Amino acid sequence: MTITRRHALVLGAALTVSLTAAACGSSGSDGSSGTGDPGAAKPAAVSDADLQKALNTGGTLTVWAWEPTLKQVVADFQAKYPKVEIKLVNAGTGNDQYTALQNAVKAGSGVPDVAQVEYYALPQFALAKSITDLNAFGADKLKTTFTPGPWNSVHAGDGIYGLPMDSGPMALFYNKEVFDKYDLKVPATWEDYLAAAEKLHKANPKAYITSDTGDAGFTTSMIWQAGGKPYTVKGTDVGINFDDPGTQKFTATWQKLIDGKLLSPVAGWSDAWYKGLGDGTIATLPIGAWMPANLESGVKAAAGKWRVAPMPQWEAGGKANSENGGSSLVVPEGGTNKNLAYAFIKYANVDEGAQIRIDNGAFPATTAHLQDPAFQNKEFPYFGGQKVNQVLAESAGQVVSGWSYLPFQVYANSIFNDTVGKAYTSSTLQEGLKAWQEASIKYGQEQGFTVQQ
How far apart are CA 408 and CA 336, in angstroms? Predict the structure, then answer.
């Protein structure tokens, strides 16, 4: 869902209000954005006994989320803790919910007790001090509970601002029937991928290795996998530079696909896209680990034809990966019962609720679930009986560390198609990224950030 200009301005206004306070924050030891005031007293620690007391006492929680597996989690949670009533509200998907949340924060009323926030959007809310640092609840003890990619994604400086709901390590989904028909080998490197794209399209001009008309999340995930670090964030000091080596690895290869007209011009998630996945004219998808359920439900005609392989590598023999998508559950500062809210998100993302969500199709962010033999050995009829989770679990452990999103990534992504998107029709990727960089810098400076190239 694309954020509108009106939504972007609302989000920007909320950020501007918060920057004066946030500017005094410290940067964390990992160099990422810090949002706490080093002179302020730390909140009192919340013990397990305090959390249990909150559960026993009960109360009402309002949870804003669109992720469907939470419906069963809520039902089971309320059965286990009958004094708790949870109002599960779909306040909009992604950007629409973020706008509603920012409006509620600004108004000082109507703020939910728990909210779903995607990883790329979390830094924006952390910097604005709209969500609670969960260190006081003992969240720091959960480091080994989660895989590195999601765990790093809920951090801002020393703060922990959410518990990971799920994970999106990238993998290569490919149509085995197409690969067999045209004698294509599963690519181990992106050079192999380019060669397969050329061979496929030459053999069948109606067939393409993949579709891509420009997508911010995909592009940043590809740069991440290539070792790129175009964003640096230390509180309100931000750096944006798409001239880094990792970015150029990506653009050099992808530009050849664009110039060779080897990418399907069909827009992702459209009816034509689903049709192409079903009839073999779109042969692969480099995408997040959450994709299997979408193929099973949306591309039923291709059941038994698709398989999953590790992501092609930028260096032969490498084992580097990145995340593509994924969300956390956060506790907004304006919520009325933080102890109960934290108890719920821990139940949903760490305790019994995590298994409930996995059983209903979510891809886990938790190490124990990823390593569970029952999870790894599950056979997927849609994928010809392949044990898909073995590939995806291994990919989750290979996510490159050190990636940062902008504290205004929601806005930056909203202008991607106006900048980088033009590279698919009238300019080059590097030129498009330069335009994206300049527009993002301008916006950040207008919002009160110190932004450098």
Answer: 27
Please name the helix (run of DSSP H) or strand (run of DSSP E) that holds residue 122, with its range, or none.
Answer: helix 122-127
In degrees and rounded to multiples of 5, residue 318 shows phi and psi of -75, 165
Outline where 204-244 has alpha helix (H). Answer: 216-225
Instruction: Burial-class residue 359 by CB neighbours within 10 Å (0-12, 13-18, 19+).
Output: exposed
Distance CA 263, CA 19 (A): 42
Domain 5-167+326-371 matches domain 170-322+403-452 at the CATH topology level: yes
Digit-coded pLDDT (tens) for 298-321: 999 999 999 999 999 999 999 999
Which are the contacts of 429, defined by CB distance < 8 A and separation ≥ 6? 250, 251, 254, 255, 258, 420, 423
Positive or negative, the Cα torsion across 73, 75, 79, 83? Answer: positive
SS (H, E, C) 325-365: CCEEEECECCCCCHHHHHHHHHHHHCCHHHHHHHHCCCCCC
Give the domain ranges of the chain.
5-167+326-371, 170-322+403-452
User: Measured between alpha carbons, how far is 339 from 331 in angstroms, rounded to an integer?
Assistant: 9
The residue ranges of the chain whose pLDDT is under 70 are 1-41
Nearest C-alpha neighbor of 450 from the set 239, 216, 222: 239
Q: What is the CATH number of domain 170-322+403-452?
A: 3.40.190.10
CB 365 within 8 A of CB 349: yes
Q: How far, in Å, CA of 436 to CA of 48, rounded?
A: 46
Show the DSSP H helices in 228-366 as ranges: 245-259, 271-279, 291-298, 338-349, 352-359
| Tens digit of each residue's pLDDT (9 = 90 or more) over 365-393 | 999 999 999 999 999 999 999 999 999 99
* Vertex 425: Cα angle to 423 and 428 (nearest 5): 30
Distance between CA 183 and CA 258 in Å, rounded? 23
Q: 204 is written with which tokens?
A: 């069948």
Q: Which of 170, 251, 240 is nearest to 429 (CA)?
A: 251
Distance between CA 217 and CA 325 in Å, rounded?
A: 7
- Report the CATH fold assignment for 5-167+326-371: D-Maltodextrin-Binding Protein; domain 2 (3.40.190)
Nearest CA among 375, 377, 338 for reference residue 354: 375
pTM: predicted TM-score of the whole model, two decimal places:
0.88
DSSP for residue 1: -
Tokens linked to 16: 């501007």
**Which residue from 161, 118, 153, 111 is spatially nearest to 136, judged by alpha carbons?**
161
